[in-house]
Amino acid sequence: MAEPLLRVEKLVRRFGGIIATDHVSLDVAQGELHAIIGPNGAGKTTLIAQLTGHLTPNSGSIWLGGRDISGLPAYRRSALGLARSFQITSLLTDFTAADNVALAAQAHDGHSFRFFADARKERGLREAAHAALERVGLTHRADVLVSRLSHGEQRELELAVALATRPKLLLLDEPMAGLGATESGRMVRLLQELRREVSIVLVEHDMEAVFALADRISVMVYGRVIASGLPSEIRRNEEVKRAYLGEQHVVVRHG
Amino acid sequence: MSKGLNARQAVAALTVAGLVLLPLYSHLTGNIFVLTLFTRIVILAMAAASLNLIMGYGGMMSFGHAAYLGIGGYAVGILAQEGVGSGFIQWPVALAASALYAVVIGALSLRTRGVYFIMITLAFAQMAYYVASGLARYGGDDGLTIYKRSDFSGLVDLSNRVQFYYLCLACLLGAVFLIWRIINSRFGLVVQGLRSNEQRMQAIGFPAKRYRLVCFVISGTLCGLAGALLANNTDFVSPAMMYWTRSGDLMVMVILGGMGTLFGPVAGAVAFLVLEEVLSQVTEYWALIMGPLLLLIVLFGRGGIMGTLGRLDRG
């Protein structure tokens, strides 16, 4: 079998006496949309933070495209094609939407030790920013300060920023968090389109969205992956039902 | 721009015009003192502008910026003492020494954040202060008199009051221009992005420390130039140039004028030093009035002078 795009091996991260990720292993194939679900506090965000390099694992390893990236800082991983959106929106709030995206493009366009030319007039960067904003439907809000954007728009901008780095693998930490029904629907449609271009790891609580989108699903409970497989397998898995899905009757019924 | 000048630009333009015309006023009224005062103001405005680059735009609260004034000043003083009078040697050495100090201090202190960064930059500046006090050969505590100003082989005569003033003003305006270009460049956007959200910047692929360090060094080097000017202005250097209260003054100028605004530090330096001058003529307890006054301005005029003017513009 071909080398998976992302391979996570026995990742362990402790916070004091708590094991937030307990020997988590995971494979994400090229082109796959892999969803990670689990109740609050299962360690999903801790896992993402270790994948992006914001947290160092206590043990275990992370491989991207056959390369061990476990010890690399966040910015190097980004250069290798890893992009993320944050669970709690994390943008440059005193910059415009276009600036946020243009900076992401700039980060992947050589070094930024250029001191004299006006970066906002660089056509290449602005066009890249425009393209990413168009992708998520924010073109008309390009020159608005991020702090003035609605929550839903900020979630979409998170995605545009990640896309502007032209990633191989997109790590999305609850992109639907706090979105209304219409906005959620738009986000799902957007992800449907994006998955054709880029591999995605999706952490999400919205079960309807997860089962609609995912190629494979891993279920985390108390820091461990208790099941991993096709959506149909996950739906039937007794342990998963007991630990997690059982509480959400709606999903089981719709299944 | 088509709407004409806004309040901020108007104040900036008026200040520059005032500074350019000042020698004329001094000449016509025979008031030499005002020229001396404003030479000092222009030099310290440049130091404040350099501090604003890291403090306002970069979010790095350096509490040791006066160290560069001292290093730039001592470079000129020591070389003059050793018989090297040429400004073409003194000034590059002043800049290089400041840059080198900034590289070392920056590399060490940029590992820390927030209040620790403030304390560590303060500590290093105090170290520089005590090192200067210990330089027995160069006056130690008492400081070092400079008997001859930097010599630029007839290009510009630093002993001529007006010429020296215009040299200082040219340096200030050059520094402001440079900072204006920097903050709108790729580099400047990265530095401001790091101030806004470091985690996000790392996630999109920027190595934070490198950019911060380079910004720190640019700022220190500019301030070193101000130090070289200051030494020539007073014909004297002493450890007091880098005492922590001087660093505090520079911070106050930046905050008073408006952190992270291009022209704020210049306005802040003019306001601070003119106020100091006027009040000290009224009473020897001028600091008692100055302190509360600054407090009120910071409390009620958020964003300093430029911030308040900015709110006026928006109506």
Helical residue percent of chain A? 25-40%
- Give the class of chain A from helix and strand content and strand pairing: alpha/beta
Order of helices and strands of chain B: HHHHHEHHHHEHHHH
Protein chains sharing the most extensive interface? A-B, 36 and 25 residues
Structural class of chain B: mainly alpha
Specify Rg of chain B, calculated over alpha carbons: 19 Å
- Number of helical stretches of at least 4 residues of chain B: 13
CATH arch. level architecture of the largest domain in chain A: 3-Layer(aba) Sandwich
Major β-sheet of chain B, in short? 2 strands, antiparallel
Look at the structure and give the CATH class of the largest domain in chain A: Alpha Beta
Report, as a whole number of angstroms, the end-to-end distance of chain A: 31 Å
Looking at CATH, which topology of the largest domain in chain A would you report?
A: Rossmann fold
Integer average pLDDT of chain B: 94
- The poorly predicted ranges of chain A are 249-255
Kindly state the number of beta strands of chain B: 2
Overall body shape of chain A:
globular
Describe the structure.
The complex is a heterodimer of chains A (255) and B (315). Chain A folds into 2 domains: 1-81 and 167-175 and 198-255, Rossmann fold; 90-166, no CATH class. In chain A, 36% of the residues lie in helices and 24% in strands. Chain A contains 10 helices and 10 strands. Chain A has helices spanning 44-52, 74-79, 97-107, 123-135, 151-164, 181-194, 207-213, 231-236, 238-243, 249-254; strands at residues 6-15, 18-28, 33-37, 59-64, 67-68, 82-85, 169-173, 199-203, 216-221, 224-229. In chain A, the strands form 2 sheets. A 6-stranded mixed sheet of chain A has the order 6-7-8-3-9-10, with helices on both faces. A 4-stranded antiparallel sheet of chain A has the order 2-1-4-5, covered by helices on one side. The radius of gyration of chain A is 18 Å and the shape is globular. Chain B has 315 residues and is mainly alpha-helical. Chain B has one domain (7-314). The mean pLDDT of chain B is 94. Chains A and B meet through helix 2 and helix 3 of A and helix 6, helix 7, helix 8 and helix 9 of B.
